[in-house]
Design a protein that fits this description.
Blueprint: H1 2-18, E1 29-31, E2 35-36, E3 39-40, E4 46-48, E5 62-64, E6 67-68, E7 76-79, E8 87-91, E9 100-103, E10 118-120, E11 125-127, E12 129-130, E13 133-134, E14 139-142, E15 149-155
Antiparallel strand pairs: 1-4, 2-3, 5-15, 6-15, 7-14, 8-11, 8-15, 9-10, 9-14, 12-13
Length: 156
């Protein structure tokens, strides 16, 4: 058994030493050779790597935007344009008896269609962001009945 140990140790030392690679610390510079159609182009100049890595979740403050339709059949502003908006969502309550219409490109219309982004049946919800993109324009809503309730939050 001792003989096998020494043989393995000798092989590891010889093989490991011959194939050892020296690891250098990262310098913050990356060599990049751009390719166009499979052919390398450019001078191979180093590109600086800058930026920060997010290591904690984004902190947002939710603002309640829920309420009721003030005049049935007439669009009303749910959320004003806001460049600080990080997200938002709207829900037509399960208890609703009609569709809630939402638009981020103009006045929401009944019975739905352009410029509406969504027509929510009772219990459905809509979010103003996906895949890292957030709608920051004004958002309007509309429903047929005065007093129709809706649930909404804006994240800033």
């Amino acid at each position: 058994m001792r003989k096998l140990f020494w043989i393995c140790a000798a092989v590891l030392l010889m093989y490991g030493h011959a194939n050892a690679q020296k690891l250098e610390p990262a310098t913050g510079v990356m060599e990049v050779a751009p390719y166009v159609g499979g052919t390398a182009v450019g001078g191979g100049s180093p590109l600086p790597v800058t930026g920060t890595l997010a290591t904690s979740p984004l902190t947002v403050a939710p603002t309640d935007r829920g309420g009721t339709i003030t005049l049935g059949g007439t669009a009303q502003t749910l959320m004003a344009a806001n460049t600080s908006r990080k997200g938002c969502w709207v829900q037509n309550p399960v208890s609703a008896t009609e569709t809630l219409h939402i638009s981020s490109t103009g006045n929401a219309v009944i019975p739905g269609g352009p410029p509406d982004d969504a027509s929510l049946a009772p219990g459905q919800s809509w979010a103003c962001g996906s895949n890292g993109t957030v709608i920051q324009t004004a958002i309007t809503i509309n429903a047929a009945t005065t007093g129709h309730t809706f649930i909404a939050k804006e994240l800033q």
